[in-house]
Design a protein that fits this description.
single chain; mainly alpha; Monooxygenase; 3 domains; two-stranded antiparallel ribbon; disordered N terminus; Exo70; Exo70_C; Exocyst subunit Exo70 family protein; Cullin_repeat-like_dom_sf
Length: 649
Amino acid sequence: EDQNHDSENVPPPEPAMEVEAKADDAKTENKEEEISEINIPPDLSKVSEEIDQFIFALSSAKRDESEPPEVPESVEQYAVLVEAKIANHDSGENPVKWSQVAEEDSSSFLEVVDRISKLTTSLSELSSESKYAWSINRIGGIQQRAMSYLEDEFRSLLEDIFSDHNNYDSKTKQWSSSSTNQEADSCPLPDSDSTGESNFPGYSDEVVSNLNKLAKAMISGGYEIECCQVYIVVRRQAFEERLQKLGFEMVSVDDVQKMQWESLEREIVSWIKTFRECTAVYLSSERKLSETVFSDYQSISDSLFSSFSRAVMIQFLNFAEAVAMTKRSAEKLFKFLDIYETLRDLIPTMDNLFPDECVDEIKSEASLTRSRLGETMVCIFCELENSIKADTGKTPVPGGAVHPLTRYTMNYLKYACEYKETLEQVFREHQNIERADPATGSDYDYNAQSDEQRENQSPFAMQIFKVMDLLDTNLESKSKLYKDTSLSLIFMMNNGRYILQKIKGAAEMNDLMRETWCRKRSSDLRQYHKNYQRETWAKLLHCLTHEGLNVHGKVVKPVLKERFKSFNAMFDEIHKAQSTWVVSDEQLQSELRVSISAVVIPAYRSFLARFNQYLTPGRQTEKYIKYQPEDIETYIDELFDGNAGRRRQ
């Protein structure tokens, strides 16, 4: 019974895990007691030598697979000294700015951090050794605090861009100023050494040197991911701010689709300016920055710049793609051409601008965007054709003046021909696509052209001829809206002369249309002129013939009087009508008046001189001889002025 009673008072055995935990706590307490008894020497350099020896011993043990050394007291001594050094820099709420640290002190700090990192790495490689567990945690914690401070200072230096930003601003402003004085299709690249200053976007050489040192310390300490994340985030933010300063803001595809064309035009102008500046100045500077900050790690530098530049280029290309996807209309052609030329001029420079790992992808994306713009422009010409076909208004232009469709089409083609080389390229590429796969073709049918046309004309020239043929057909149809055949001929002369003058006044278009076409057009105009003369003035001149005036050798006065009356009435009617007609081309107007005067005035003067003697002077003369030759000339000079002119009462 006593034995049973004693056994009831014995406490139950503790679980094995609790026993181990208490044992570990006891070891930790003993370790801390040992540390408290350590005499910390003030000489950091001496302790550093001992740490270097320990790191070497750890490496040797791992290499030789020998017994790892015990942790020396110098490890904790070094830990305490390093903690104090970190505390001097990172004092919580008011850490010391790296830019304010003396060079000697910063070098010493980075040397300490580097040694801590090496010690952490060496101990971690032997983490299976239980005797290193406490030291790994202890040293790892110190390293983490040091890296946290370096990360904050790395970010601070990157973000503190504006205090030293004047150099980059002056460079980009100098480039912008020079580029605005160039033609719209040129994109001059600045001399990288033209300023004699640092090319880094907003940082002095001293700041970049500090960034390099901090990056090296973080990466060698195993904090590559944290370092790269800070770098890419801050640089992307700086890039967005740079775009805003340049007046451009990245917009989504949906936003582009919803924009009114007037607003989108302004965005395109801003896009071209910003895109050229970024590729000519900003990206090259950004690449140099990453190469210098990460000079000891080329693969990291290339990866960071590749990620940065790829994201930037995709943003720019997305905008261009979105523009190409907007509803097609003839007015958009010229802005599309500006975007197309910007991409075309940039693509050959990409090999020197982007790293090998991303250059092929970016070039491919840019080429694809350019090709899509090209195909859209071919379709825009089809829209121009459709707009000409659809202009079927039944109201004739007053006075037979140049039709608005003629003015619009010719001005459109004139401006299009200023991009002649680019459009030649666009239509050649489209021709190649159609030849390779006719099913992908547009309304533009290259295969419908004759062999002779294909041999003698470029694809773009054939497109221009097609538009001109459509315009001619439309004008022929509109000329039939006039009831007066003479006015119809004036309409055709006005429009024909306008077309010819536009072509002759534009060197690119004149070269495209060629001399044969222009001669044919001039011949058509002369024929219209002859037909007009015959239709209008032949009837009037018939009044001045001698036929029927003489009977048996005598002038029949009643017939003579009727001839004068008919001439007067007919001339009055012609003057009344044709002084309201419009011939705006001064040369054509003069040619018409001179040719009319050359036919009418001599005939009238001769008729008057021959037969006025048969009219009784006084009342009969005034009644039947209404005009003197000089009056006829005056009234002919009033024709085609677009108003009633002066009339004899």
